[in-house]
Amino acid sequence: MGNNLQRPKGTQDILPDVAQQWQQVENTANSLFNQWGYGEIRTPNLEYTELFLRGVGETTDVVNKEMYRFEKSKRDYSLRPEGTAGVVRAFIENGLHRTPKPVRLWYTGPMFRYERPQAGRQRQFHQLGIEQFGIAGPSADTEVIALAWALLTTLGLPDLALEINDIGSAADREAFRNQLRNALTDHKTALCDTCQHRYTENPFRMLDCKNPSCQTIYSGQPIQALLAKPWTNADSQAHFATVTKALTELGIPWQRNHTLVRGLDYYNGPVFEITTTKLGAQNTVCGGGRYDSLVETLGGPETPGVGWALGLERLISLLPASAPVPPDVWVAIANTSLLTQGMQAATQLRNKGYTVDTDLSHKKIGKQIDAAAKRGIKHVVLVEPEREITVKTLTTSQQTPLTDFLNQPIAGR
Ligand code: ATP
Ligand code: MG
How far apart are CA 128 and CA 316, in angstroms? Predict the structure, then answer.
């Protein structure tokens, strides 16, 4: 062997046992989305960079520092760092704004961010998300949050908490910006370099900082007191109050978090995150909010929108590992000249609904039966020279001709 080849830092191989958990989550999500009237949309992993510059915002970390960006034949491309911008582009490009409202969409797939890899943080990770377009009122936010809650509780995720905040309009934030700066003037030198930069560029982004010493300052009294005073417009406050009242009535517990601002620029009104105490530092599973100007920003007609995305790696790490399920039937084939007969038997059994593994070792039949027994398999098909093909049930040692076995109702697993 030469030099060992390795996967890029911050990426993962998902092997069959864990892939089984992914499939289970994907299947649950798929059928729940279907029940709630959300249709799947698949957009490219690759987009022109301009989409993210305009959509996600040039002052965000995601666009500024974290994008995998490259040029090819003088075009500027980026691997998508998140899903919403691409879905909105596709929504406009395919004329979905001309279809009945609300338009309800979901997506899943890999996202790429050049971040420092650590537990719960990778450079290629996967999101599952929904977007709902066309409804400006609080019903849309309520439905979208209720669907996130339904999914996470259906999957049995432990210790969930929903945090929600009202970040008002861009004008509200503009007007509030200086108050936030003023309240932080005395603390400025204690902030991390990034926050000092954000202080000038985009002070709201400071609140999203992961640095514990910055967080201590933001969660301290003067800042919390300032943020707790209503600073968003009256419509936004009323909208927020209606959403949270509905959540309470639906039995979904929530907490106001005045420091919650989200890392992307396109949000307005209610924003939210669902966290779990079981994840350590990277404890946010799902995040989202309302983005009423994004469709217009990306060249479409004025269309309100609201959605969320959840991190599948973080979610799956919270689920109990599932034991591999052995196949129902094992086909033992005495020698190569009987291979096609063995494969035909396997096909008949699969058509009936059984899961079937074929032993290709052509060892002595007894050895093949031992191998099946070791793996906890119930039925072994014996394909031997000059013998009718029979099925041996290992638990009872009973032998049944294959034709009879196929006529029996499928045995319980
Ligand atoms: P964080 O604050 O943890 O960096 P974020 O605000 O950047 O998250 P979003 O852009 O809102 O994340 O993405 C939604 C979800 O995607 C997150 O809540 C998280 O579960 C997941 N996620 C985001 N970045 C990563 C990453 N680098 N690796 C794994 N999962 C991620
Ligand atoms: Mg992030």
Answer: 12
In short, whether 115's Cβ falls inside 6 Å of ligand 1 is yes
Quickly state the pLDDT bin for 325 (edges 50, 70, 90).
confident
Q: Which of 283, 316, 349 is the endpoint of a domain?
A: 316
Residue 363: band (very low, low, confident or very high) from pLDDT cuts 50, 70, 90: very high
Q: Looking at residue 145, what is its pLDDT?
A: 98
Domain that holds residue 367: 329-407
Domain CATH number, residue 164: 3.30.930.10
CA distance 310 to 274: 9
Is 90 exceeded by the pLDDT of residue 2? no
**Ligand 1 probe mutation, 314, 315, 317, 318, most atoms within 8 A of CB:** 314
Q: Give 344-363 as a DSSP string.
A: HHHHHHHHHT--EEEE-S--
d(CA 106, CA 90): 13
295 CB-near residues (< 8 Å, 6+ apart): 88, 91, 92, 97, 133, 301, 302, 303, 305
| Pocket lining: 84 vs ligand 1, CB cutoff 6 Å | no
What is the rounded distance in angstroms from the CA atom of residue 203 to the CA atom of residue 182? Answer: 11
336 plus 303 within the same structural domain: no
Residue with CA nearest ligand 1 atom 26: 121
Q: What is the pLDDT of residues 262-274, one digit of tens each?
A: 877 789 999 999 9
Q: Does 313 sit in the ligand 1 pocket, CB within 6 Å?
A: yes
Q: Are residues 270 and 385 in the same domain?
A: no
Query: Which of 62, 112, 214, 282 has most ligand 1 atoms within 8 Å of its beta carbon, as the pocket-test mutant?
Result: 282
Digit-coded pLDDT (tens) for 203-252: 888 998 888 999 999 988 889 999 999 999 999 999 999 999 999 999 99
* Cβ–Cβ under 8 Å, residues 356 and 378: no
Q: Does the Cβ of 125 fall within 6 Å of ligand 1?
A: yes
| Atom 22 (ligand 1) nearest CA | 311
**Which-ligand-closest: CA of 112?**
1
Is the CB of residue 288 below 6 angstroms from any atom belonging to ligand 1?
no
Report the atom number in ligand 1 closest to the C-alpha of 123.
27
**CATH code, 387:** 3.40.50.800
| pLDDT confidence of residue 1 | 60
